[in-house]
Amino acid sequence: MKPEGVILDWDFRKLTPEKIFKDAEKLIDDTKAQYDFVGSLDIESVSYNSVIKPLYAAEIDFGTRSSFLGFVQHCSDSKELRNASYEADKKLENFAVDMSLRKDIFDRLVALVNKVDITALKPEAKRFLERLVKEGRRNGLHLEESQRERIKEMQKRMSDLSLTFGKNLNEDTTKLHFSAEELDGLPDDFLEALDKDEEGKYVVTLQYPHYFPVLRKCKKSETRKILATAYQSKCMNENVPILEELIRIRKEMVDILGYPNYASYIHEMRMAKNPQKVAEFLTSLCDKLQPLWKKEKEELLELKKKECEQYSYPYNGKIDFWDTRYYATIVEETRYSVNKEKLRPYFPMEKVTQGLLKIYEEILGLNFTEEKEADKWHDDATVYRANDSETGELLGYFVLDLFPRDGKYGHAAVFPLVSGCLDPHGNRIVPFCAMLTNFTKPTSDRPSLLDHDEVETYFHEFGHAMHHICSKAEFKKFSGTRVERDFVEAPSQMLENWCWQEEPLKRMSGHYKTGEPLPSDLMATLRASRLANAAGFNLRQIILATFDQKVHTETVTDTEKLFSDLYKTILDVETIPGTNFAGTFNHLASGYPAQYYGYLWSEVFSADMFESKFAKEGVMNPKVGMEYRRKILEPGGSVDADVMIRNFLGRDPTMDAFLRKKGITV
Fold this sequence. Notes:
This protein is of the alpha+beta class.
C-alpha cells in the first residue's frame, strides 16, 4: 500500500527490469515534450508563466520519477533489478545532461530576465530564475556551439564514470578467511555472528560491521595488515583509472569555461567561495592539531612497544598504517576506561531507534508513526510518517533500512526520493526519503547491538532525513538538504551532540538483557573520551580533504603517490605499498568532488550552534529546537547558509567552539 499523499509510484511487487526500462523511456519522452514546448516559444513574448512554470513542472516530475528508478540499484536484493536500475540511471543522467545544455531554453531564460522586473518576483522565485541562468552559464551555454558540444560530451562521460565507480563498490563481495587464532582479541559474540567456510575458518567481509571491529580489536598485526590491505585495494584496478579520468575531464571542462581549476568552479557556489580559503582553513587547522598529534603518536608508540615486549613480537619503532585504530582503541580503554564492547550491550538497535525517534520528536516538535501496511523493498526496511505535533500537519515520510546485505549501498546515506516543495499549482508535495546504513546485524540469540560510533552515525544520518522532511522551501531546487555543500553536514553534525549528553544517552540506552540504561560510571567515561585520539582522526580528515583539493587544483598524474605523500607528511605514517585508497573514495567520483573539506568546514557552524544555543538553554529544550527547525531546517537552500546561521545565532559565527571541540585551546 502506498502511504497517503505520496506522489511516488514505488510498488516493488510490480517491478521488473523491463518495467524499469519502459518507465525510463516514458519519463524521457514526457520531459522532452515539456522542454520542447518552452524551446519553441517566441523569444519576444516569453513570460514567467510560459517559461518558468512548465520548466518547474518538468523538474519536479523528472526528479521524482528518476530518483526512484535510480534508487533501486542501491537497495534491491535482485541483481537483475539493480543492473536495470543502473542502466536506466545512466540513460536518465545522460538525458538530464542534454536538457541542461539546451541553448534554446537558456536563450529564453535570458530573454525573460531582461524582460521582466525580477525585483517584483517573490524572493524565492527570483532566486530560482537567477539560479537557472547562472547554471546555464556554468554549463557554457553562452559559448560557441563547438565548445558547447564538447562540454556535453564531457558531462555525459563524467556521469557514466561516476555511476560505474559507485556500482563497482556496491557489487564488491570480497571475503577473507581467518582462523580463530588469527582473530585473537575479537569478542566471542562477534565471532559467533560470522559465517564459516568449509574448513571452519571465519569469513570476514569489507563491510563496516566486520572491517572496523577487526581493525580495532584484533591482536594479530598480520591479520589487521591483510584486512587493511584488502580494503585499501578495494576496486582499485577498476576505480582508480575511472577517478583519474574524471579528474582529467573536469580540468578540461573548466579550461573551456574559463576557470583556473575545477575547485574554483565548484567553490564559486559554496560558502568558501574559492580554493585559497579552503587551503588556508585546512593548513591552519592542521598546524593547530600537530602538537596534539605528537603527544597522541608518542602514546600509541609506547603502547605498541609494550605489547611487542609482552608477546615477543618484533618492534619496528613506528606506527604502521594498520596500527592506528588498534592502539587508539587501547588508549580509549586504558586512559579513558572506555571499552566499546562493554558499551555495546547497552545499545540494542530497537532501544536506540526508540530513543532516537522520541528525542527528535521532542526537540523538533514532531510525531512519528510506523506505517506497517506500506509497501517496501525489503523486510529490513521500516516506513514512518512524520506529523507536526501541534497542528497534526503531515510533513512527510522516511524509511529506515539499517542492516548490510549483498548488493546494497555500502555506506550510510539518506536518499531524497520526493522533495518537499510546492507543485506548479501551489500545493505542497509531501516529501519522502530513505535512510540506508550498514549497522551490526542481529544474530539468532541476540539483537543488533550497536557500538557508540554507530549510534553517532545513526543520529547524524537521521538528521539529514529530518532536514529533508522539515523543509518548507517553495522550489524543489532549494528543498531540504539542497543547501551549499559545505554547509549541508552542519545540521546533522550538530545533532550528533545528543549522543554525548547525559539525558539523551539515558533515553537511547538499555541493556538488551535487563533494560538497565547506561550506568553513570560508563556514561562518565564515555563522555570524557570524546577528545580521545581527536588529533589523529581530524588529521586523517584533513588528508582526505587535501587530497581532494590537490587533484582538483593541481596536475596530479599519480594518485597513489599523492595519497602516500600526504599521509607521510601530515601523520608521519606510511601507506601500504601497492594500494590506493582513491579506488574507494566515492565522494570524489560523485557528489563531493573538490568538496570533502565541507565535513570540517561545516563543523565550525555545527559546534557554534550547539554550544551557543542548546548547551546553554538545554539540550532537550523544545523552544530552541523549534527555533532550529524554523531557521535552519525549514528554509533549505532558499536563503544563503550564512544568513540562516546569523538568523539562528543572532550574530556571525566564530571558530571558538569548533576549536574547543578538537581539544585546541582558544
